[in-house]
Amino acid sequence: MSDLLKQLGEAGTAVWLDFVDRKYLKEGGLKKLVAEDGLTGVTSNPSIFEKAMGAGDTYDAGFSEFLGKADASVQDTYEAQAILDIQSAADDLRPVYDRLGGKDGYVSLEVSPYLADGTEETIEEARRLWKAVDRPNLMVKVPGTKAGGPAIRQLIEDGININVTLLFSQEAYQAVALAFVEGLEARVKKGEAVDGIASVASFFVSRIDAQIDKKIDTRVADGDPEADALKALRGKVAIANAKAAYAWYEELVASDRWQKLKAAGAMPQRLLWASTGVKDKAYPDTLYVDTLIGPDTVNTMPPATMDAFRERGTVKQTLTENVDEARHVLAEADRLGLDLPGITDKLVLDGVKSFADAADALLGGVAGKRVKLLGDRLNAAEEVLPEALAEAVKARLETARSEAWSRRLWKADASLWTGKDEGKWLGWIAAARGDQVAGQGLEAFAGEARRFKHAVLLGMGGSSLGPEVLSLILGSGEGSPRLHVLDTTDPDQIAKVAGPIDPKETLFIVSSKSGSTMEPELLRAYFWDASGGQGANFVAVTDPGSKLEATARKDGYAHLFHGDPQIGGRYSVLSVFGMVPAAAIGIDTHAFFEATAPMVFSCGGDVPPAENPGFRLGAILGEAALAGRNKLTILTSPQLAPLGSWLEQLIAESTGKQGRGIVPVDLEPLGAPEDYGTDRVFAWFGLASEEEPDGLEALAEAGHPIVRITLARPELIGQEFFRWEIATAVAGAVIGIDPFDQPDVEDAKVATRKLVDAYEQAGSLEDETPIAHNADFALFAPGNAEFASADPVELLRLHFASLSPGDYAGFLAYLERNEAHSGDMTDMRLAVREAYQVATVAGFGPRFLHSTGQAYKGGPAVGDFLVVTRDPDPDLSVPGHRASFGTVQIAQARGDTDVLAARGQRVMRVHLKKGGRGLPALVEAVAAAVQG
Ligand SMILES: O=P(O)(O)OC[C@H]1O[C@](O)(CO)[C@@H](O)[C@@H]1O
């Protein structure tokens, strides 16, 4: 066998292998090269690991073992395997390292290419990898970008071996060579040793010729007058560039500055020739080895180049040969306008990008494998999309990948949205790992809560909907209180909860992020009074410094739990706002976060969008909305039905603004494909143990887009909280709005407050005149608009007759939220859907005001609303206020109706008369109206 590679090493150019693969290492491939070819080093990069790990099953056992211990992020899953390979290669090369006294025998592992623009992040990551690999013959590979330079200086000062990668230009090389020198000098200054610190500067070769030659060929083909001069440079510029770098290196090591370091024991930073596999098949495959041989250099070769050199390489001191000719080549390239500086600048950017692309592919591949290994520990999601939507989603996911959306979202980069203050609203990401509740004493609190029979939560929207989902889906633990959620001003509903409970046996959880929301404040006053002012029975959940905090302190509440001001209400379920009530009813919050973790990892910033369940779903929702499919229709198995109201708030309040967004449709019974227009997207939630309803498949077959989500067990519901939070934020980016504000909610609050304040003064609400009425109800139109008929059914007919495809009908009832009322609302929805094939929504007021109300006012102005009110009997007074709950409730209805109308929505209010037949009468009238 030829010993050309050995000869190459002896001639001063160390032979390194640019390749790593577990199978190859296991089968002794590397050891063989060391023994037979005098190999003294190995390099790796993200593309190499992508090829090794992204496909095939070589690493499956490793992944499985790693994930078997505990679930982990995709980055950690990949990195653990990469580190094992690097350690194994380092161990194979250890005898070389020992024999050569640390002058060679190194293995390189690259920092994440995503960090190429961040000095501090690069330093941190290099230190972390150095520690994790824990081998003296490791070189951490750092890109020689502008940000990389200072990092290299610091890392050398730290005493870490560094391989500087992606060097193309003389300037970049010289800058990192000086950074290396400065790092060593800093050590000397501190009296620290400099011997044993190794570094190489990886100067890329063939990529330069690939670019220059392309330019030359185009110009020659275009009949350039300098064609001959141009042709003479083909395949020469990269080598000339490398020779010039080496000449500068020789000057550097001869300088006094370097000699001082040398005297202190420093080893020079060797030039390493990288990208030495020829790209142009017309050149000899050993070209970039043969021509770059000289003392104190390295050539890292892909296996094919190494095999070629072993067979037909030529060993000769070529690097220092014909240097003048090399300089002439560079001068010619300059004279002929081939723009080497422009090319090398671009090559750095392209190099970083191509390593980032490779890292995306690698992490995407690992993510896919991780999902398979997790099995049903991760909730499944399956999508069936019509072709055009599928194409749009695919394109969006690719854009999102190349624009690093997942990393940017996790880094709270506001430019993903409108560039305002979105970055300040991403505290929910850390909260999903349990960080926000850590140290809040939830376990002890759960124990204390067991002395109560009931827990009553007073809160609205984000402060009530999550806890309600948890209590309805997971239920209370043995011996823990039952949760009743009050998010209303409806006197009947309040009485329903207040009646049966004994305040002495009840824990009251007053929950409001802002601490100033009207409903929880009125409810707090009511139950405080009812309990006789028992602070020991009250806890508050609120953001620091709120008015509620002051009340809790003054009234001696048993506990005060602080929220994170960087989490908006609708994203707060995995913070104290969901977890305090959860703990109160005996849900093991620690186990809950553990069950949620697989989704948090799966949606990580390190998981490229296409493989990231949150981003995938967000792209579907966003693209569907852009294509006019902006009615997200939520279908669930019976056990998961409570999730719908939480989702409604998240989706509607986050996306429904500036006339854009997604209108969620919850609790609308599943219909036949023809009952739906082309404005729908369906989301199905089911437990693996439950049957899917007949009719779901028919929707998919009829071309309606559908996403099916399956949970192995109810305890995995936390995963859906997180998946949908990410998806909503992503959909917001696609739609182009700020998913963390709620600009239109305030208007209804202002209108209500005006009415209530007037009432507090005058003792009555301003009179209104109905536009029509019958024995059961009266109809009101905002602004007392003129109407063509005095017949209520005819007016309702006209109201609904304006519905056209893409519109939606809404039924907003300021009544007790109970089964009978919900059933009546469903009947009205179905009648309208059957008649007009439009989406229908329903909400109980004022609960919906803090949820879907944002989208009804700020979202697409294609709604057709019927607001239902009545005079409660009996009413309930609020301690310390003149206005009763009933008065506040009707003021809320009137205020919001006016705002809806002002926003261009079609809206009518139906007031159910005392002594009339109530809601069933309206159901009849609506049925008659839409059939008429
Ligand atoms: O927790 P708070 O501050 O009382 O707010 C309750 C809800 O009201 C809203 O601000 C809308 O009015 C929601 O966004 C929020 O979840």
From TrEMBL:
It is found in: Cytoplasm. It holds the Pfam family PGI. Its EC number is 2.2.1.2. Signal peptide: none annotated. The active site is at K141 (schiff-base intermediate with substrate). Keywords: Cytoplasm, Gluconeogenesis, Glycolysis, Isomerase, Pentose shunt, Schiff base, Transferase. Pathway: Carbohydrate degradation; pentose phosphate pathway; D-glyceraldehyde 3-phosphate and beta-D-fructose 6-phosphate from D-ribose 5-phosphate and D-xylulose 5-phosphate (non-oxidative stage): step 2/3; Carbohydrate degradation; glycolysis; D-glyceraldehyde 3-phosphate and glycerone phosphate from D-glucose: step 2/4. InterPro entries: Aldolase_TIM (IPR013785), G6P_Isomerase (IPR001672), SIS_dom_sf (IPR046348), SIS_PGI_1 (IPR035476), TAL/FSA (IPR001585), Transaldolase_2 (IPR004732), Transaldolase_AS (IPR018225). GO terms for cellular component: cytoplasm. GO terms for biological process: gluconeogenesis; glycolytic process; pentose-phosphate shunt. It catalyses: D-sedoheptulose 7-phosphate + D-glyceraldehyde 3-phosphate = D-erythrose 4-phosphate + beta-D-fructose 6-phosphate; alpha-D-glucose 6-phosphate = beta-D-fructose 6-phosphate. One of its GO terms (molecular function) is carbohydrate derivative binding. Belongs to the GPI family. Transaldolase is important for the balance of metabolites in the pentose-phosphate pathway. HAMAP family: Transaldolase_2 (MF_00493). This is Transaldolase. It comes from Sphingomonas aracearum.
